[in-house]
Here is the input.
Amino acid sequence: MTEEGCLLVMVVDMHPQLAEHDAHTYLNAVVAFANLHLAANVRNSLGVLAANHLESRFLYPSCDGDGVERQRDGRLEMLGQVDRAIERGLKTMAVAAGASPMHSEQSESLLSGAMGRGLLYIKRRETEEVLTKKLQSRLLVLKISSDTGSQYLTYINAYLTAQKMSTPVDVCVVGGECGLLQQGADITGGTYHCVRQVTELLQTLLLMYHCGPATRRKMNAPPPDTVDYRAACFCHRTLVDMASVCSNCLSVYCKAVPLCTTCNVIFQTDRPLVRLSKKKK
Amino acid sequence: MQEEEDPKEYRWESGYEKTWETIQEDESGRLEPSVTEIIQRTKRRKLLDREASVRLGIMRHVYIILDYSQAMTEQDLKPTRQICTLKILEDFIKEFHDQNPISQLGIITTQNKVAKRNSDLSNNPQRHLDCIKKLQDVPCRGEPSLQNALEVALSSLRHLPPHTSREILIIYAALTTCDPGEIIATLQKVQEANIRVSVVGLAAELHVCKDITKNTGGSFSVSINDLHLKELINEHLEPPPASTKMDHTLIKVGFPHQINADAKPALCMCHLDDLPPLNTRGYYCPQCTAKYCDLPAECRVCGLMLVTAPHLARSYRHLFPLKHFNEILAEESSAKECYGCQKQFTATAADKNVYVCRTCQQVFCFNCDIFLHETVHSCPGCASNPTISQYTNT
Ligand SMILES: [Zn+2]
Ligand SMILES: [Zn+2]
Ligand SMILES: [Zn+2]
Ligand SMILES: [Zn+2]
Ligand SMILES: [Zn+2]
Here is the structure.
């Protein structure tokens, strides 16, 4: 009882690519983990957001659907509410997504938007409860969709905000690795892990993500992987080892360009570049 | 050069708003809502102001000239001017490197009529913090020399490439300066080198200081107390508008790999002098594979500027600022809760206004509006909109 409560905000990827995996197992893992978190400590609280290629949505606590705020006496009642809220929200999202055709460029969910909203929610809860107790909070991102780098800036902004709020961002990726989210976990001091199969998801969540950062430090977890800190160039969005950077606005270019497309300055290409490249030899 | 300030008006006569006159009791006789509203207004006004500047000198080279004369021993700032200023500078240095990733700082002190370079221009915050620590044990003595200090700064700022923003921040407590020659000549040189000089005074307004700032486009201010001093110094965290004489160029940078497991143990180049234990953790220069334990750094072997992508991204907020939101009355909006934090809008005074993003039309509460503009710098509503999010980030 002496332990303070923890606010867990889950950001769940609901991209249609989920159909390639076992959607049922995936959602079961999400709901089971949410329930476990609430049941583990009376003071724990939860927020759940979902994102697909069209929108991000608050599933729990949900504002539509009545009765959610009213009955809070029994724990089981609350768990039931979580299940129902998640189910209802996901249904609405699935219907909306099914109604509109998917474009090929929308292969990534709008997770950064959902993360931004999650952080604002955490921020409000923290300021509300600052008088009574220090609220421990963290963000857990589950990702299944592919990685395009089109949300680069909003992701980085979200990481830097989380870092300022000292909120760790935990990331669990299903399928392939995601370098961008790995950076986020590394910057904010969260855990990053990649599971190959959806069937491994629940087990991984329970083992690696259930306990707070303090307990995790005592665990003998595998050493963190190499984090890819390369930047994507503004011109082709490819990751580069070495790049040219505009001295005025720090836009990244993979090769020399005569003028900066971001801030419209013309480059004096004669002296400094030559000097630097001579030094190289 | 824009200069709209009335020369007859002194610092202590201006800048005070008569806030007490606008505070009024509400129906229940409380002052609090009125005070909250004033604070809210000021915060929002500050944000609106900031949006105006477009072109920024992001590669900054800043020398801090610190007065270390007798005058710094005064105790009007607690415990002494010296300790108080050093404490503020410590935070400033950390925050400066956070917000200006590829900029450099240097520290010069002046006492006993001479100036001394305590820390060379570098982008390694630890070196400056060590310097500040050492300075805590150095006693403040004698008279300062503004001219000597400016000459020292000038000698190293003058040779920087033309695309950098050159700045000097003077923190001055004395009311005199003891110079070997004509200071006007030095000022001329400073001006020619296109250096922006700003002065934060601890005691009173000095004519010569005010002149320097006026001629170089810098800012001049005198602090009232410790909190005010902190605020004045921290104003220099934001990059200044770039001067028109500045050239622009492409700088070569490297994004080092961080290798843990399969690399061979090596010495890091940044701590060569104090012989650290060999280890594998660190960042490796992509051009010459020299190892560094912390970034940003300038490669000592090949001269490449080494940064990580998030370092650069910290500056993008200056570049792609979040447009300010429209303020509308709560009853004019159909939204029942804040799009960000899910706070329900009630009929109380705090929720009288709501804030609408001009791009995605989502509605936010006041706290989220401030937080988004001060800290996050991107709108989660826009990021959650497939058409806008594709468009704004490419
Ligand atoms: Zn490119
Ligand atoms: Zn540019
Ligand atoms: Zn190198
Ligand atoms: Zn809000
Ligand atoms: Zn927006």
Notes: Chain B has three domains: 60-237, 252-319, 320-383.
